[in-house]
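JOB MANIFEST
job_type = single_chain_structure
chain_count = 1
residues = 209
[input]
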Amino acid sequence: MNVLYRLSVVVLLAVCSQAAAADTSQLIASLKQGGYVLVFRHTATDDSQKDVYPFKFDDLSAQRQLSEKGRDMARQIGAAIQARAIPIGDVYTSRLNRAIEAGKLITGKECKPVDALTDSNNASASGMANPTAANAKAGAAVRQLVDRSPTAGTNNVLVTHKTNIADAFGKEAGDVQEGEAFVYRANGSGPATFVARIRAADWTAKADQ
């Protein structure tokens, strides 16, 4: 009986996983029509580097940068987007170079660095490790960009940080992974509607099929 129960659980999990994969694949395909806003956390970074506070945006040695893994991750996402002919409109990023570089590699376009997407942890050592959605002002600034409708037939892309995503979408969003995207459907008459989350691996998994 236990063996049958375990087997049924395994089958159920497999079916759920396949269904989720299919949903993600359909979502990625629907991006080709435009009308979405994708909010990415920047891809993987070199943890041996540390940010210097206050931020020195023109001094790359005073910022944590993307690692080679992070650059490769961003390139793979970008290649998947290009392979599907997903149209990209405006690209907004944090003013920190790791987000700017990720934005360029993902979209193949020049980015518009803005304060609203710049790391909101306010130099707190615990801010990045334990985001609590405590910065309402920072969260509102992110949501204003999310609610901005893209040009018809295109998708806007935002590249920001873990803390900003938690500030904007709640502490439950604090588990956002590097390279993961929150997808919103634009609504010209009101706030954008949350659709789903796309992990970095989802783009490349679908590209291989």
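[summary]
The longest helix spans residues 2-30.
Residues 1-22, 125-131 have pLDDT under 50 and may be disordered.
exit_status = 0
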